[in-house]
Amino acid sequence: xxxxxxxxxxxxxxxxxxxxxxxxxxANLDVFAFTETKLEASRDLDTMYGIDGYYMxxxxxxxxxxxxxxxxxxxxxxxxxFSAEIIEFPSTLIPRNSExxxxxxxxxxxxxxxxxxxxxxxxxxxxxxxxxxTELNMFLLSLNSEFIICGDFNFDLLKKTTATFKLLHLLKxxxxxxxxxxxxxxxxxxx
Length: 191
Prior knowledge:
Elements: E1 5-9, H1 17-27, E2 31-35, E3 54-59, E4 74-79, E5 83-86, E6 99-106, E7 113-119, H2 126-141, E8 146-152, H3 162-173
Parallel strand pairs: 1-2, 7-8
Antiparallel strand pairs: 2-4, 3-4, 5-6, 6-7
Helix pairs in contact: 2-3
């Protein structure tokens, strides 16, 4: 019961697509979001990754000079009983080689639900990411809908630093909850 959302940092969807189809159907997900899909518009046709009963929204990684670089990209599947619209977030606020994709999903008899995927490049400084995360949340609040932010922040909450304290403070300030409660990569990182 309820609205089911799942996120996976997939590190290329090409060789895992059969597993994606199986999981989305077994779990009966309403939204399935991916980061690091590594799809390329010149090679991967959208029709190759369509799933019956779902709309697909694909976002290739774009650098600040509008050229594609290897890796990255996000993909969001939305159950076809819902409608969704892409929301533009100012690209000048997204850290270099990082990504942010936003969909506003219309849910019957409810306020819209905004789904956000974030991929933060590991070389982005904590200060720059925190500034971006603040701007993102201010923007999302202006949309007047509930929102879910998922993705790969490349931010290690297991380390007790000033930066992790600031991120936890921002989560509290924007009334957000961190649902991951254990290591996500070889014993390190919660986000």
